[in-house]
């Protein structure tokens, strides 16, 4: 019966890890798509500004108010891209806590109940070497 409980608990830990990994990958993909959308929007507004300036110059006309309007649109698109990029950088600096298994020396997350390498159950903080430490992702 003990083996079945251990197997059940190990499967639960693995499933939780898979869910967390999937969520992390989904978040990274979403952030990448947000950056790409902001870059496309910036490129589009820059092309529109260029087409306007070319058209005005070609026809010997000038419309400073319209050019200023397009310049403001480009500036807003640049700000949006900078904001999305900064948000992505902030989230990628996410610091996680880890501990080291006494049995095999593997790094595991701070809230792990079992070692992902050897299966050692962590009863207390004494089951880890060096306690909990910060690591960069």
Automatic annotation (TrEMBL):
Entry keyword set: Coiled coil
Superkingdom of this protein's organism: Bacteria
Record's protein name: Zinc ribbon domain-containing protein
InterPro entries assigned to the protein according to its UniProt record, in alphabetical order: Ribosomal_eL40_sf
Species of provenance: Candidatus Ruthenibacterium avium
Coiled coil, from the record: 67-94
